[in-house]
């Protein structure tokens, strides 16, 4: 967190300087921009240097006071609560779609190694890995928004949102989730497909799988009961690491679609030098990362009894 604060402190874009100039130019202001800057620096602890400012921030943060956002002009926690759940719903939808598509596709590719199905899934996964988020989002907007006109090109509400019924407002909001969720799914399924296929092939070539087949077990039981359970072990690493993504938002995707989630808010907080909000956001992501690793370790013991502590 100190490194993050030092980076934020050193940003060339200073929202405090912009605020000082704005206050100095307001009608009736009796202070110059330099005087306002000195006052604001003292208020936010910038006159104490990086270490002094960080110690002031960590002291107030431990007390549960994260201050007001400089960019959004509301308390940091209030802006966070307002945007986090939009991002969570978006990421959760994409996460479910990713699991539902990538894992079965990877298993099918491994079961039919070197077949047309395997090659097709491999090509699709490589395309998904190769396409950057901004290109995928732009392509989807071009096809479904510009050409077909099925969805709005961005935002979270249509122009006639206020005139809609409650049910109409729900479907209007849901329609604005489609393209961002589809973007997140397309850019993430490729690596999980490849990962699942590689691990399934490794398991299928194991001695105990050949023994199970030699005993006359059906192929479905060999795959679903014996092979897939052991394939889950490395997959749990990815699933546990996905926890931060569910809450931290998708900065690029949300920004491209003007989707007012936590990723969108954090992006504009960073580029405007909003240290209070950025510090809180990055602290939150750091805690989620540690929790994700802990959940992965716990799930290892659930899936594989060999790693349980007796």
Q: SSE layout and pairings?
A:
Layout: H1 2-9, H2 15-25, H3 33-44, H4 49-62, H5 76-111, H6 116-130, H7 133-147, H8 166-204, H9 207-214, H10 219-241, H11 243-248, H12 251-256, H13 262-271, H14 275-303
Concise structural overview:
By secondary structure, this protein is mainly alpha-helical.
Could you characterize what this model shows?
The two termini are 36 Å apart. Helix 2 packs across helix 3. With 310 residues, this protein is mainly alpha-helical. It is globular and about 90 Å long. It folds into 2 domains: 2-62, no CATH class; 83-307, MetI-like (MetI-like fold, Orthogonal Bundle). The protein has 14 helices and no strands. 75% of the residues lie in helices and 0% in strands.
């Amino acid at each position: 967190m100190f490194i993050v604060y030092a980076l934020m402190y050193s940003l060339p874009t200073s929202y405090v300087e912009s605020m000082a100039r704005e206050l100095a130019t307001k009608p009736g202001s009796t202070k110059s921009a330099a005087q306002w800057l000195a006052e604001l620096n003292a208020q936010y602890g910038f006159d104490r240097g990086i270490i002094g400012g960080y110690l002031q921030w960590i002291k107030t943060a431990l007390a549960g006071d994260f201050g007001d956002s400089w960019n959004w002009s509301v308390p940091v926690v209030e802006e966070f609560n307002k945007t986090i759940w939009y991002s969570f719903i978006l990421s959760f939808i994409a996460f479910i779609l990713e699991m539902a598509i990538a894992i079965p596709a990877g298993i099918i590719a491994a079961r039919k190694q070197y077949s047309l199905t395997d090659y097709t899934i491999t090509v699709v996964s490589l395309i998904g890995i190769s396409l950057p988020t901004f290109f995928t989002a732009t392509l989807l907007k071009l096809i479904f928004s510009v050409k077909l006109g099925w969805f709005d090109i961005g935002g979270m509400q249509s122009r006639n949102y206020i005139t809609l019924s409650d049910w109409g407002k729900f479907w209007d909001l849901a329609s604005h989730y489609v393209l961002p969720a589809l973007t997140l799914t397309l850019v993430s399924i490729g690596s999980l497909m490849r990962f699942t296929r590689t691990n399934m092939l490794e398991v299928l070539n194991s001695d105990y799988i050949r023994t199970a087949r030699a005993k006359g077990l059906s192929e479905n039981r060999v795959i679903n009961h014996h092979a897939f359970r052991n394939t889950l072990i490395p997959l749990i690493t990815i699933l546990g690491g996905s926890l931060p993504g569910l809450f931290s938002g998708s900065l690029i995707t949300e920004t491209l679609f003007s989707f007012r989630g936590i990723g969108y808010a954090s992006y504009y907080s960073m580029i405007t030098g909003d240290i209070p909000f950025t510090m809180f956001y990055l602290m939150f992501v750091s805690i989620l990362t540690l929790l994700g690793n802990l959940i992965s370790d716990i799930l290892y013991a659930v899936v594989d009894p060999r790693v349980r502590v007796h």
